[in-house]
Specification:
mainly alpha; single chain; 76% helix
């Protein structure tokens, strides 16, 4: 479930310049996960970190 939520959030980020700026300015994966949660996407900082490592 969290991978699907992460994927949906990343698609949203791609299409929203203001959101992309917020994500880029976030200090760490936990901050990005908090931004995502505000928009209804639930995933952990660890899920995001695993995704970034590939």
């Amino acid at each position: 479930m969290s991978k699907a939520q992460l994927s949906a959030f990343l698609i949203e980020v791609e299409g929203d310049a203001a959101l992309r700026q917020r994500v880029e300015a976030a200090g760490d994966a936990s901050a990005v996960a908090a931004i995502a949660l505000e928009r209804g996407h639930v995933f952990s900082a660890a899920t995001l970190s695993r995704h970034q490592r590939g």
